[in-house]
Structures are given as structure tokens and as C-alpha cells.
Amino acid sequence: MRQEKKQVTDISDRPVIRNLADVDPVRAQQVAALRAHALSDPEAFWLEQAQRIDWATFPTAASAASFDGDVSIRWYEDGTLNASVSCLDRHLETRGDQPALIWQADDAAVSRTLTFRELHAEVCRLANALRGLGVKRGDRVAIHLPMVVEGVAAMLACARIGAIHVVLFGGFSPEGIGERLIDSGAVAVITCDFSRRGAKRIPHKTTVDAALAHAGTIGAVKNVIVVQVTGDAVPMTEGRDHDYTTLVSPQETECAPEIMRAEDVLFLLYTSGSTGKPKAMVHATGGYMVWAACTTDWTLSPQPGKIHWCTADIAWITGHTYVVYGPLLSGTTTLIYEGLLGWPQPGRWWDIVDRYQVSCLYTAPTAIRALMRDGDDVPREYSLASLERLACAGEPISPDAWEWFYTVIGQQRCPVADMWWQTETGGGMLCVIPGAQPMKPGWATTPLPGLSAVLTNEKGEIIEGATEGALCFTQSWPGQARTIWGDHKRFRETYFTFSPGKYFAGDGARRDENGYYMITGRMDDVINVSGHRIGTAEIEDALATCHSVSEAAAVGINHDLKGQGIVVFVVARSAKVAPPVDELSRVICERVGRYAAPERIYLVKDMPKTRSGKIVRRLLRKIASGETENLGDLSALADPAVIPALIAAVGEQTITG
Ligand code: WTA
């Protein structure tokens, strides 16, 4: 049965601001007090927030961070802890028999529920197995798994023994995985036979084998643990490969947690930047856990006994913070779903919501757009009455997608937390605190307590008031990435030189007269395809390996479903031999990943370049989007005659497909 819609009263004179009927004055006041405290005494505020997690030794000081000079970010330095204790052990006495993790298989008839006690035991067994294989504190362990119980257990088992987890996306190519195994120096990989993607089977084990062959003798991987997900036979290398169940089931169900310093690394997570080389953001144990706890609580209000479903893959930062660490440390039940959106039928997600009585649904705008396309009748066949909170992150959400999510899924009863954040930030940064402030569709709203967001102009100077500029933060926060693994110089240069002394997020934003922020998109060469960050250089570097290509430039264009799509311009090495477009696309998928498949590839004679030889992507973007009327000032181009030729080439090739 559909719930009757709650009347939403709009007490604002700006109709665009949606006031929740239940903005609670007491909650609003509490949050205002919290913000004021963070401003007046940050040290005390952050130490207070640290109490949200369990410590072996509680820290005596909060921040020792500086964005100046060499940039050094440290939090809670004399504190010691183990992250898995806050997620598991702390609950054993009070709610050991409550569900911690629900796994819904692709097959609707198959699911598995683990209580906190059971998850604790599974994590300890795997942790003991890893120790038995010689994995030590500080070692890197790569995890290459789909959404299965073992993926969550693997992250926590690494944390248990102080090993650093490096979760790799299932869609990465063998080259991509190999490169990351070398860069991280991983000593072990936890993978599976195959994963399921609708009717397809995605090979994991053979991909890892190929990646290891690619990593060759430089790689440090000594052990590969293979989970049976589909049960299909896969080649096993004697002495290196181990079957998960055979290895793990005989182990002890207790494992003493390794006591870590707050600044010891909890995990590395790869993300894309302006250059082709993937970068691993380094997250430290204490601060990350505190920030996961704060942001989960403020924005999602998780509660023990309720079901929290964040649809993100564990290979993304959202999966780390809002599938695993945030929900588990708050004692709520986290649900993971192995399958695809809308598979095998469009209402699959809503079936899961009703079946498990999901209370909080956290997803990405790209999924919301896809769900919207199925029409309102699909969700209307379900009750969805259990939903209390909605959230989304990963890319800008348009006001109409927001409205649809709020109205059709949330039935105007559930606040929508549009959370802006990044792999680099560890947890949510700009987000409405539901109940304490009005929402505004399409706007990520305000910085969370303790954060110091500013906008700057192109020169990096702070600009005030209702305006638009580059989003920066003047002060550190506990969840901030500490560095780029093995490349602190790149960290400093990427994030702290645009506006010295400030963290530059790489996004542009607009600010309204109420101090609400709306993200306008990336200001660097990063394309966001369905929430996947892809550096244009990753695509260009992949194409540089093709002998037939002389030059390539990738740009992002608007895409109805994916948010952004990729368009690639290619100049052939020889005017006589045109590189086959299918082949170029295949190379991109192989080297970068399937998710980087371009929408279109145009063969062109010349690129628009400045006199110093830099490709002017702005023009390529406009031409690819068909915005050829208003190309702006072309006087900086070395050869303006390139432009009409480009427009003609694009026109011809688009028509002929
Ligand atoms: C974009 C994902 C608008 C942004 C959590 C950012 C968003 C990049 C939002 C980080 C949002 C993320 N509104 N844009 N609510 N959330 N973004 O590292 O461009 O995969 O810089 O982290 O996604 O992507 P990442």
C-alpha cells in the first residue's frame, strides 16, 4: 500500500528551498550549537568527536595539521586503536546477536545474514589466516571482489592485523590491476573465481593471474586467496593460490587486534587525477574512523536494529565509509546486494527495500536517473514505507532527479541527503543535516560542522557572498587523506598549490545568499561517468600505446543517463591509414576499464592548440557537444583554421555514426 503523502509546508519565501515539515527546532538548535562549538574551540570539539569510536589509548590532542610548506596532516597522534574493534567487538556484548551484515545474492532466493558475533568470527578467522600466510602490520593486501560477505570481511580482517587494504574495482583491466599491485607493493590478493553481472560472468581469478603476469617480477604478491562465488573451476597455482574456505574455516574465531597508532595507514584507495598515473589516497586509522562516525551520524542517523543500504561498490570510497565502516561502527545493519540495478526486473531494488524493510537508502544520481527512466509505476507497485532516509553522492544531482527521488521513492516523507565529498575527504563534506535545516534540490547545501569551506577566484583568492568559484577548505578535518602513496610531492602540488594554505578540491561551486553550496563540476581534467572518476590522461595514455595514433584528446560531454560521457578526438599517425575506431575503443576498455568506453571517437586531422602547443580542450568539449555557435575567443589558437575543419569532421562522422 502506498503511504499517504505528508503535507510539505514551505515556510520560506524562496520556493526553491524545500522545508521539511519536520525541521525540528530542538535539533536545529543542537546543530547550531555544535557548529558554534567547532568554531570557537576546534581542539575540544574534535576531541569530543573522537569519543564516538573505541580507542586503546584515547588521544590527548586532536589536530596537528598544516597546509603550509610541505603539508603535513596528522590527527589524534598519541591515540592508539584498532578500527575493527569499533565495528565489531564494541557491539558483541550489547547486540552480538543482531544482524550486522545482510547479503542479498543476485538470485532473489539466496541471501545470508551475519550477526555481529558471526561477522566478528569470520573476520577473526580470515585475519588469523592472513597472519598464518605471513601478512604483517603495514603490509598491503589487495581485495578484488564483488559485493559478497567476504569483501567486507576482508577489509575488516586487514584492519584487524594492521595490514593496509587496497580494494580494487572489479572492472579494472589486468593492466590496471597490475599497475596498482606494483604501485601499492601488495603482498597478497583476495579475489574470487567469477562475479555475476546480470546474465554475464566476469572473470576475477584469471584477471588477477593476468595482472600478476603483467606485474611480473616487480610485483611482491606471494599469496592469492580465492573465494568461490560462482563455483566455476579456475586455474590455481600451487604454493601461491589458496581456496578461501579451505584456508579460513579451520582458523580460530578469536584474533587479538593489532593495536595501531592513529596515524598508521588503514587503507589505500586509488582514484583518478589529471595525469594518467593512478594515485592511491592514503587514509589514516584514527581520523578516518572519527570522520566516518561523525558524518554517518549527522547525515544518515543510523540506528541499531535498522537496515542501512548503501548501493555503492566496496571498491569506491562510498563503499568504504558508508557500506562498511560508518554503518558498522554505529551498530546498524548494513545490507549489500550482489546484483545489478534493474536485474532481472526493473523493480528489483524496491523488492529489496520492502523485503528487508530498508530504512536508509544511499545511492548515486546515475542510478536515480536510470530508475527514473523505468517510470513511476515500477516503484509504485511497492510499499517503500520502511524508508526513512535517502542519500546520494558521487556526482551532481539535477533538481528534477532530486524531486523524483524525494517524491516517488521517499514519498515526501524522507529527507534526501545530497552529500558532496571525495576519495580524498574520507567522508561527507557538504551535506544537509536532515531535521536541522531546509533542503534545496540540486544543492549539496552546507559544510558539515567543523569544516571551513571557502570559494576562491581563479587566482586562488577568497571571494565572499553569493558567488561562484573554486571550492577550497582552509582547515584540515580528521578524515582527510594524508598523502598520495609514495608521492607526497604530487599530493602537495595537486591539492595545495592552487591556493596556498588551502585544500583545493578540484570542483567548482556556486554559493547562494544563505551559504548553501551547489557543485558545478570538476575544474580539472577529470570526467565523471556514472560516478566513476576518469582522468582524460588515462584515456590518452591508453591510446598513446596504439601505433596508428599520433595524438588523442578526451573530453567529457553531458549525458542524460551517465551524467557525463567521454568523447575522444584522435589524429592518425598516417593520413593514409585511419585507425579502426572499434580497435581504439577496445584498447581504452582494456587499459583503463570497461566503464571508460567512449561514446564517440572522432578522427580529425588536427587538434586546436595554443601557440605553446597545448590542446584547447574547452573547444573540443564545445564542438563535441554541438555548441559551435559560441566558441569564444579563438585568437590564442596557433591555427584558427583548425576549427571549421574539426566542426566539419565531427558533423560528418556523427551522421555516418
Ligand atoms: C563529484 C565520491 C556533486 C565531485 C564520493 C567530486 C559530487 C568527485 C557529489 C569525487 C555531489 C561527489 N554533488 N558532485 N553530491 N559527490 N561529486 O572521489 O566532482 O569518487 O570531486 O568520491 O565526485 O568522486 P569520488
Keywords for this structure?
single chain; 657 residues; alpha/beta; Rossmann fold; GMP Synthetase, Chain A, domain 3; 2 domains; 8-stranded mixed beta sheet; binds 5'-O-[(S)-ethoxy(hydroxy)phosphoryl]adenosine; AMP-binding_CS; AMP-bd_C; acetylation
Can you tell me about this structure?
The chain is an alpha/beta fold. It folds into two domains: 5-450, Rossmann fold; 528-652, ANL, C-terminal domain (GMP Synthetase, Chain A, domain 3, 2-Layer Sandwich), CATH 3.30.300. The chain has an eight-stranded mixed β-sheet, with helices on both faces. Strands 3-2-15-14-16-17-18 form a seven-stranded mixed β-sheet, sandwiched between helices. A hairpin with a 5-residue loop joins strand 23 and strand 24 (517-522). The radius of gyration is 25 Å and the shape is globular. The model is unreliable at 1-17 (pLDDT under 50). The structure holds 5'-O-[(S)-ethoxy(hydroxy)phosphoryl]adenosine.
